[in-house]
Specification:
Layout: H1 9-16, E1 21-22, H2 31-37, E2 41-46, H3 54-63, E3 66-69, H4 75-78, H5 88-99, E4 103-110, H6 117-120, H7 124-141, E5 148-153, H8 168-173, H9 176-188, E6 193-198, H10 206-221, E7 227-230, E8 233-234, H11 244-252, E9 257-265, H12 269-285, E10 289-294, H13 320-328, E11 343-352, E12 356-365, E13 372-378, E14 384-389, E15 392-395, E16 401-405, E17 417-425, E18 434-435, E19 439-441
Parallel strand pairs: 2-3, 2-10, 3-4, 4-5, 5-6, 6-7, 7-9, 8-9, 9-10
Antiparallel strand pairs: 1-11, 11-12, 12-17, 13-16, 13-18, 13-19, 14-17, 15-16
The structure holds ligand 9MR.
Length: 442
């Protein structure tokens, strides 16, 4: 895989997918790390106004490696009046995510809901230019920082009709608005994956058939679409469908990635845990299912809090559903590094040229703060580490084992992370460097 373009860290995740390795022999002990070992991300919806709550942030930072702004990137939040944009809350989430090396899903550009009333008052020509302007401005603002965009959300009707839902876009611009939105989006940020996202499309039914036919048509005609999001809001009226995996697979077979984008399952105890396990196993069984996002960190802030549909309870305790998800992802509860267990390390290749590649190691504190850390990186003998950044290296006599220490004060708050990087001259050997355990000073 040759990647010549110099991209920012998140852009590289976009381009290459999340290639992360645990640095230890032990199984991963968080959702994000366990999912990464399966080549997937594990994300959550996030609300900007909760980022000042320490327990919320600690849980977010420890467990998740992708975020979706729950409301802050919707049209009413970003462009409340025509051509007047307010990015403050969305920016808070994106900068938090970047500081933690998390991916960001953009949600959502064109949707009938949370749409300011001025949009509904436009005639067709003005609506077309307002839609394209909204996509261009918002995607331009976040260009290179968004892994996947929900370009169009919930454009189909529920029930058996398979028809498009009535909305200002549908009613004034016709079916072609979806295609136009995707074409505009591709030009606005060529590195972002472009998704269509919907609910009640999780099993094979009239609505998902209609979406399926649209995606197949787009692929046949070269309309740019990369992914389909399955919201997966489940409860007893709308349970996990028996053909959930089959449905994900048939979309994947069209040549798009599939993502579980807003997962929550009402219930409690073993029954809820069993349903979550089924969803995770379905995603793992579909190679193009690239990640799972749950629709919130804690039950207490869920959009349907009374149904307790999430993985952490109102006090941020792990629920049986959490344990089931972690186990399904191959993780081990409370596992961690040999030694102190106080920090963990993950590796990503962030860039590759004809003769060399860049690696990035993220060091993350566990559930307690640490004062400092060291990590070893071992390369094969023909390889050479020719540059390093964001750390102070020392070398063993062979020159193949680098011990990295922080520059200056290496303290990390609970759940917080930092990264260092290095360039490996391959000399024909493209093996992935091997990480030693993270050793913390507490
Ligand atoms: O969780 C969101 C909630 O806070 C908002 O009030 C609501 C407004 O429509 O949107 C919720 O998120 C929705 C998402 O954007 C699209 N799919 C359905 C989600 C749950 O309603």
């Amino acid at each position: 895989m040759h990647r010549v373009a110099a991209l920012g860290a998140i852009g590289v995740l976009t381009a290459t997918g999340l290639v992360t390795m645990s640095g230890t022999a032990n199984a991963a002990s968080t959702l994000g790390a366990a999912a990464a070992e399966k080549g997937r991300y594990f994300g959550t919806a996030v609300a900007a106004n909760r980022l000042s709550e320490p327990d919320y942030v600690a849980t977010l930072n420890r467990e998740f490696n992708s975020v979706t702004p729950e409301n802050e990137m919707k049209w009413d939040a970003l462009e409340p009046s025509r051509n007047s944009f307010n990015y403050a809350n969305a920016d808070r989430i994106v900068s938090h995510a970047r500081s933690q090396n998390m991916m960001v899903r953009g949600h959502t550009l064109v949707w009938h809901s949370q749409l300011p009333s001025w949009v509904g008052g436009l005639d067709a020509n003005n609506l077309r230019s307002a839609m394209n302007n909204h996509i261009n401005q918002v995607m331009g603002h976040y260009r290179g920082q968004i892994h996947s965009w929900d370009v169009v959300n919930e454009a189909f009707q529920d029930g058996s009709s398979g028809a498009r839902r009535s909305s200002p876009f549908q009613d004034r611009l016709g079916n072609g608005f979806i295609e136009e939105a995707f074409r505009t989006a591709r030009a606005a940020d060529p590195n972002a994956k472009l998704c269509y996202n919907d609910y009640n499309t999780d099993g094979i039914n009239a609505k998902s058939n209609a979406v399926y036919n649209m995606v197949r048509d787009f692929k046949q005609r070269g309309v740019p679409i990369d992914c389909v999001g399955f919201q997966s809001h489940f409860n007893s009226q709308s349970p996990v469908p028996s053909d959930y995996q089959q449905n994900l697979q048939r979309f994947a077979d069209l040549g798009v990635d599939v993502q579980i984008t807003e997962l929550d399952i009402e219930g409690s105890g073993t029954a809820q845990a069993d349903n979550y396990r089924r969803v995770v196993n379905a995603c793992l069984a579909v190679s193009r299912c690239t990640g799972i996002t749950v629709w919130g960190v804690t039950d207490k802030y869920s959009w349907r809090a009374s149904g307790t549909p999430l993985l952490f309870d109102g006090n941020y305790n792990k629920k049986p559903a959490y344990d089931a998800v972690l186990a399904a992802l191959g993780g081990t509860p409370g596992g961690g590094n040999p030694g102190t267990g106080a920090c963990s390390v993950t590796y990503q290749e962030t860039n590759r040229w004809g003769d060399r590649f860049n690696g990035q190691v993220t060091v993350r504190a566990g559930s307690s703060a640490i004062r400092s850390w060291t990590v070893t990186v071992t390369v094969n003998s023909v390889q050479d580490i020719s540059a390093t950044w964001n750390g102070t290296p020392s070398w063993d006599s062979s020159g193949n084992v680098m011990t990295m220490r922080p520059n200056g004060n290496g303290s990390l708050a609970a759940g917080a992370s930092t990264s260092f990087g290095f360039t490996v001259m391959a000399n024909g050997d493209w093996s992935t460097p091997r990480l030693g355990s993270c050793v913390a000073t507490t």
